[in-house]
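Researcher: Good morning. I'm working through a list of sequences from a screen, and I'd like to move beyond sequence-only analysis. For each chain I'm collecting a predicted structure so we can compare shapes side by side. This is the next one on the list. No need for commentary yet; just the structure.
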Amino acid sequence: MDRPNSRLTNRTLAFVLAGGRGSRLKDLTEMRAKPAVYFGGKTRIVDFALSNALNSGIRKMAIATQYKAHSLIRHCQRGWSFFRAERNEYLDILPASQRVAEDKWYVGTADAVTQNIDIIDSYGIEYILILAGDHIYKMDYEVMIREHVDTKADVTIGCLTVTREQAKAFGVMDVDDKWRITSFLEKPDNPPGMPGNPNQTLASMGIYVFKWTYLRELLLSDEDKESSKHDFGGDIIPYIVENGHAQAHRFSDSCVRHREDAPAYWKDVGTVDAYWQANIDLTDFDPDLDLWDTNWPVWTYSESTPPAKFIHDAEGRRGHALSSLVSGGCIISGTEIRESLLFSKVKTNSFAKLNQAVILPSCNIGRSAELTKCVVDRGVEIPEGLKVGTEDAPEHLDAQGNPIFYESDGGVTLITKPMIEKWLATQ
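Model: Good morning. Structure tokens for this chain:
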């Protein structure tokens, strides 16, 4: 029974699954997990799930890490170390550490929770909120947890409304008129429609609410099943749909909008094209994702950097940026920048041109270089005069005749340090 004047989030643990590589981001995840990838000029992808939890009133969080976790762990230590244990609040990092057996890492999303049952027990929580750490959105989790309690569900699943064609790439749900889930289908060829809207389908966001005692029992039972993949979407959720009460929660009911007519913004930036587009969208006059909203801020590690500086004012050598985001510590020296996003401590040199470019921290753009529709990884030194993505850019091939820079299906070019080294070897 709820205690008077007690928010449900006070009794909830946010458990963030942040161990995946995100291989569709290609070389951007060569040295870091997908949740640790930079986004939006200052933040990392994982900051959105953590900020949603914090803004919702959750002060107990745990992050399960696995693949190349150093960058992610260091970011959380630097940017999320403000919790105070004496106030019964914390953010714990739970790396895969062979806690069950010497040869067993996290083998599935559910297993990542199972292996930490003893730690979760020590938190004394009543509800557990399972979150993916690799999506961009703003959401008030209190609304979803309240629906879970009010409907007396065994699990409540956060759901997006997508077209039936889009739904073929998701785990989708068929529901009755009370939004109780009657079937859960993984990437179906013929997705079911929604009540009252047969052309739309409910797709899983990978967000789940459980009462901890209930989930704990399920996880222990699942642990002993040799046929199980120990995965929420593949094993735990289908079991509850068939044997218990699974409730669908519509994201549109709890998403945080900066204006009433704004869409319910949610992005999976899991491909180079989607990542580039979501960053470039922030340069719009009124972007759907509002990073300036102080009522629902996105918390992160904030470096101490000086203001951005723009220098030179000669024809053809004028430091300026139009419809762009330029972060602190940048020096724009005689460079033309259009519809681009620059992270901190980027330096550009005279006569360079950036158009629809996403430049990660600490890059140096060489004199007279021209980059169009590009993503440049952290710390890359762009050589003088290099042209990539422009109409007159040459084809950059290695000694075997293979492309040096990765180009996505959507025409976005990814540039990393090893690629530049390979390019220099051909000069």
